Amino acid sequence: MKLPRRKADASLDDRLxxxxxxxxxxxxxxxxxxxDHARAVVARAGARRGLSVEHTAVALAGAxxxxxxxxxxxxxxxxxxxxxxxxxxxxxxxxxxxxxxGSGPLLDWLDVPLRHTVEGDASGLILLDLPDHDSIELSHxxxxxxxxxxxxxxxxxxDPQKYADAAVHERYLRPLARHRDVMVVVLNQVDRLxxxxxxxxxxxxxxxxAADGLEGVPVLGVSARTGEGVPELRAxxxxxxxxxxxWSSRLxxxxxxxxxxxxxxxxxxxxxxxxxxxxxSRALTRALAQAAGVPVVIEAVAKSHRHRSIAATGWxxxxxxxxxxxxxxxxxxxxxxxxxxxxxxxxxEVSAVDTALRDVGAxxxxxxxxxxxTAVRHAARSRSxxxxxxxxxxxxxxxxxxxxxxxxxWRVAGxxxxxxxxxxxxxxxWLLVRFALDYLMLPGLPTPTVGRAPWPTVLLLGGALAGVxxxxxCRVFAWAGGRRRARRAAKELRAGIEQVAGELIITPARDExxxxxxxxxxxxxxxx
Length: 528
Known about the structure:
The protein has 17 helices and 9 strands. By secondary structure, the protein is of the alpha/beta class. The strands form 2 sheets. A 7-stranded mixed sheet has the order 3-2-4-1-5-6-7, sandwiched between helices. Strands 8-9 form a two-stranded antiparallel sheet. Helix 10 (278-292) packs antiparallel against helix 13 (347-364), helix 13 (347-364) runs parallel beside helix 17 (455-527) and helix 14 (372-381) packs antiparallel against helix 17 (455-527). It is rod-shaped and about 160 Å long. It starts with 11 loop residues before the first helix and ends with a helix. 40% of the residues are buried. It comes from Microbispora siamensis. Residues 58-188 form the G domain. The chain crosses the membrane at residues 418-437, 457-478. This is G domain-containing protein. InterPro entries: GTP-bd, GTPase_Era-like, P-loop_NTPase.
């Protein structure tokens, strides 16, 4: 798999910190085995860095009959390891120490109780003889696996008969492809081969290692029995020990390997991830608006405005009848903090919202690989259960503010209406007085006229006519005002619903994408 690379190599500290953060970000998204492995690498690196860096732990690992223990004795110039022929003889790892001062804590951490000091000038070398990796004893294999994951330098001892064995290549060598800088491969027992066959076997072994991703790993032909190639192997180990860098190279390889395990696919490079939600959110807004009953609310806003307008500016003689009708908006109980009486969403509207949510998740996850894409889609729906209450509050807030406030012209029209009533009353009283005086045969009052029409009649009939005309004109203004209020309410409701959709749907998806982008960046840094 291909990992994104950084332009410059980072320090081991930075890479370990990045790996730890990547593991935390991957929690619940990637396989738990890869996450736990990354955390184990970080913990192991923290422990190893606190131990002696003046010593290099080198492990001899191999199969039964490979001559590993014989090579251990040849390198150490001792007979410390018991040599077997066909059955495993090494049950617990043992160590030969050149320059043991300060090595105790490191060996304690490696849990190697069998320790032997060897005279020599290879100060700082800790040579470990491991049990056979193909031992019939499960405890032996577990001991090998534990130490292979912890030592600084690995020397794989193979023999001419089993150097192509799939068990060692598939279980150990291939998974350690990133550890080529801290690995040596030895073909032991070359003395058993005809001289012309040694080179052919070594070349074949190099080809197998290249197929495992270990091209360039040092490959030596040795014979622990005759000593052939042992000085060259000893010199190679001395060079590695003298550099005092095998431990950090091993940790760096472990970090890169753990980062590769977290990188489960080949996603785009960090920085190319985005949420193309503009077109989708419009469809989502429409679906949410329908499901929340926004069309009903908008119609109620227009009707409520007309209702209140007529109640405030209608003809006072008949306007009281309007007050007997309920306000269409108040009938929906749209108030902050209260549950509205809007009709429940239909099955078709619920299905439309569900489809819109799937579209948002699909669009948001289009640029990321699985299983992160699944996490993004889940995040887009993670707060969908909160939509109903959030939309209800949004509608209540949008309709309880300026949308329902009374315009100033209502007061002017209402005052004009009361003036027409006053004119009617004055005219009526004037006519009643004249009628009473005529009935009592008393001298009448002078009655001015407008043309040929007396003023009392003009006031009475004119006031009534003016009131009706003003009421009719106000109905026209009320209808236009209701349309305007409905458009304003629609705009505010749309903005509120977009905000709810952004908070409960788009933002969780974006946060998950940001988490993935950060994860990709951290993995790239850990692998650098």
